[in-house]
Amino acid sequence: MKRYFSACAIMLSVVLFLSSCLKDDDLDTSYPKDAAITAFTLGNLTRPMTTKAKNGSDSTYNATVAGASYKFYIDQINHQIYNPDSLPYGTNVKKVLCTITSKNSGVVTLKSMISDSLFYYNSKDSVDFSVPRTIYVNSLDGTNRVSYTVNVNVHQEKPDSFLWRATSTMDAFAKAKNMKAFSLNGRIIVFVGYDEEGAIFSCEESNTADWRLETWDLGIAVPFNACENLVANEEKIYINISGSIFYSKDGIHWDQSGETCPGKLIGATKNHLFALVSEGIERSDDEGATWETEILDDYGTLLPTDEMSFCRLPSKVNTSVENAIFIGNRDANFYVDDVRAHVWNKVIDQKDKDEPWMYVSSDDQLSSALPRLTSLSAVAYNGCILAAGGQGIGACHTPAFQHFYQSNDGGVLWLTSTSYKLPDNFACGNTFAMTVDSQNYIWLICSETGIAWRGRLSGDNQSKNQTSFTE
Q: What is the pLDDT of residues 395-420, one digit of tens each?
């Protein structure tokens, strides 16, 4: 009896203790009212890839995409969850594992894709993110519920495809007799020449349809042939007007830096200006105040005088060295038998300014030479040089604007580019301008149609300084 009573007493004491604790919890416990998603992460995904089998046939396999490598932003004001860097083209997002973290461990639910039904989130269940999805988080006290829209962004274009967009159409471009374009300080600046005078237009790189007619402060009309004496580097545009050199950072405000330019400006680097003279090429190291004669090899008669471009490619092994490439055609009135453009190359070493200009010859292999084209223009792009132009001149019978011609060796060999293509059904008059902006877009600005095209490789987000300036 004593044992039974003792056991009963102990059990009664435990019950009374637990009852007391429960009453205390009911009185003291409060649940959070906040509801928010604090983190969102994807698991591994798959992406179908195609490769060549040993027998030459196509073979398909699934590559793994590390979803955790793509950061998701959570906009707590607009309740949006998204990845600013898109997943690779073709990534399968129909069955995705994800990790969702909520504030104070609030309850997360997902809305059905076909109804208003909700189901509880489970990190072990896959979710279809091929369309925007709505998720809810509920506060623990049950008084608040917040909805978020989740967008899992995937690249919609195949990699390495060149995508073009016609950004705008301008009558002012359509009527141009000559044009030259620059990318400078976040703006595209285009000089246009007409029959009797010229004009300057500009737009923001990010607002490609809003072109403005600019007025410069030199107190004279823009010369109709200004494009023949315009060059630029990363910071400034330079123009030669009757032997005087003026420079500008925006095409509007200009200052004078020299009074004795000996010839036609052909190019600029960070520290040098180059001018074409009857005897060869001269260089200025003080923005045109003084000039020195450059050393040339023995082919001075092969210097171009028309449709000139000046491109720069950085050295792959020495940061203080770059290659300057001078491209153009000789006067069609005197050299009617030319079938190719003429290319010159100079190694610019900041420690040694006496490197000579060398003529780049393709010998007699016309299939690997740059054709002699109307309105020939060239730009440095992704470590190579791209050139394009209109109808062949003189003995050159190449059709207009068929391809980009690409050189990977500083202008020695030129081949039809397979990676970089002109816009489909591209049409242009006898004049066009080409430049590369800070976001690595190529711009093509056309006479006759007046269209300004903008394009780059899909997925290419590299920002590059402009290193070519063309007419």
A: 999 999 989 999 998 999 999 988 88
Cβ contacts of 334 within 8 Å, gap of 6 or more: none
For the range 438-441, what are the long-range contacts, defined as Cβ-Cβ under 8 Å and sequence gap of 24 or more? Answer: 438/183, 438/186, 438/205, 438/463, 438/464, 438/465, 438/466, 439/205, 439/463, 440/381, 440/382, 440/464, 441/205
- State yes or no: pLDDT of 264 exceeds 90: yes
Report strand pairing: 357-360 vs 342-349.
antiparallel
Rounded to whole angstroms, the Cα distance separating 139 from 137 reads: 7
Average pLDDT over residues 95-114: 94
Burial class (CB in 10 A: 0-12, 13-18, 19+), 166: middle
The dihedral through the CA atoms of 85, 91, 92, 95 has a sign that is negative
**CA–CA separation, 386 vs 405, rounded Å?**
6
Measured CA to CA, the distance from residue 98 to residue 124 in angstroms comes to 8
**Residues 439-462 as b or e (16 or more Cβ within 10 Å = b):** bbbbbbbbbebbbbbbbbbeeeee
pLDDT score, position 32: 81
Taking the C-alpha atoms of residue 389 and residue 370, their distance in angstroms, rounded to an integer, is 10
What's the mean pLDDT in 247-254? 96
Range with the poorest average pLDDT among 124-133, 444-453, 456-465? 456-465
Structure tokens at 344: 């010159």
Provide the β-strand partners of residue 277: 280
* pLDDT for 33: 84
Q: Which of 9-18, 39-48, 152-161, 334-343 has the lowest mean pLDDT?
A: 9-18
The structure's pTM equals 0.68
Structure-block tokens of residue 372: 């002699």
DSSP annotation of 298 reads S
For residue 6, give the 3-state DSSP assignment.
Answer: helix
Query: What is each CA distance from 397 to 332, 371, 391, in whole angstroms?
Result: 14, 9, 7
Please say if the pLDDT value at position 160 is more than 70. no
Return the closest-CA partner of residue 342 out of 381, 369, 324, 365: 369
Q: How many helices (H) and strands (E) does the chain have?
A: 2, 35
Q: Both tokens of residue 245?
A: 């050199």
Q: Per the structure block, which two tokens stand in for 462? A: 């590299």
% of the chain surpassing 90 pLDDT:
67
pLDDT confidence of residue 7: 38
Torsion on CA atoms 233, 278, 327, 349, rounded to nearest 10: -50
